[in-house]
Amino acid sequence: MTEGWGPLLVAALATLLLRATGLILAWRLPATHPAIAWAAAVSEAALSAWVVLALVSPGAFPVAVRLTGAGVALGTFFLTGRRLLPGMATGLAAIWVADWLLR
Amino acid sequence: MHPAFRLGVREALGAQAVAMAATFIAFGAAVHAAGFGLGWGLFSSGGIYGMAGQMVLLGARPGASAAAVAGSLMANARFLPMAASLAPLVRGRLAPLCVPFISITPWAAAMRRLPDLPAPDRPRWFIGFGVTVWTVGLVTTAIGHSIAGYLSPPVLRLLLMLNVLYFALLIAAGVARGGPWRASLAGAVVAPFALLLPEGVPPAWGLLGASLIGGTAAFLLRKRP
What we know:
The complex is a heterodimer of chains A (103) and B (225).
Chain A: H1 5-25, H2 34-56, H3 63-79, H4 84-102
Chain B: H1 3-12, H2 15-33, H3 38-48, H4 51-58, H5 65-75, H6 79-90, H7 95-98, H8 104-113, H9 122-146, H10 153-176, H11 181-190, H12 203-220
Helix pairs in contact in B: 1-9, 2-3, 2-9, 2-10, 3-9, 4-5, 5-12, 6-8, 11-12
C-alpha cells in the first residue's frame, strides 16, 4: 500500500509547521500577555473537550460503561491520594466489568 | 547528561508512559489491520505524533488524499495554541528542539511542571520528557504492529480507553489543585454540543469549535491580575 505515503508525508510536515508556527507567533510575547493566556485557555479547553467527547460520543463501549469507568477512576484517584496508576487501573477494570455485565 | 534532561526522562516514565503505550499499541495494531507496513506506522507515530490526526489519516479512503491531510491537520489543530502557550516557558536556543515533541501528553505535563522549575532548566526538562514519551510511542507502535494478530477487538478497545482515563485524571488533578479550572470546565460543557453537528461534518470540526468557544469564554471570564 504505497498510496498512503504521500498524504502521510504532507500531513507530518504540515503538523510540524503548525507546532513551529505556534512557537514563533508567541516567541517575543511575555508569559503574562493576553494572547498567551488565550492560547493556554483554548488548549486546556481542547483537552477537556477531547476527554468529554471520548466519553459521550457513540463508540466502542456504551456511554454508561465509559462514564462508569471514568467515575471509578476518579473515585480511586482521589481516595488513593491522587495517584494516577491505581485510578487508571480500576477505571479500566470497571469498564471491562460494566461492559461484561451489560452484554 | 544535564540533570534537568534526566529529570524529564524520569518523570515521563510514569502513568503517562503507560497511557501512551496502550494507545500506540492499539494504533500499531490498527495500522496492521488496515494493511499498512510497520514503516508507515512508525513514520506516522514519529512524524505526526498526534493520535487524532494519525487515526484520521489511517481511516482515510483511497484517493481522498487532500481530504485526509486536511482532516488530520484539523484534528491536531490544537497543537498551534499549545505551542504558543508553551513558548514563554521554553524560550531560548533549545526551543527549536522542543518543536517536534509538542503533543498533548508532553504539553499537559509541561504546563503543570515547568512553572516550578528554574527557567534555564525548562527546555531541557521538556526535551527529556518529550523524547522519552515519543520513543515510547514509536516502540509501542512497533509492538502493536507485530502482535496485532494476538489482540482481540475488546482488548484493543480497552487499550484506547486508557488514554482517556489518564487525561480525565490529569484534568481532575489540575482542577483540584486550583489549576485552569475555568478553561477545563468550559471545554467540558461546550463539547457535547459538537454531537449536534449535522451528519457529514467531520468530528474534528466539533472538537475545534468546542476548544475555541470554551477556551475563549474561559479567557474572557478569567480573573485578571
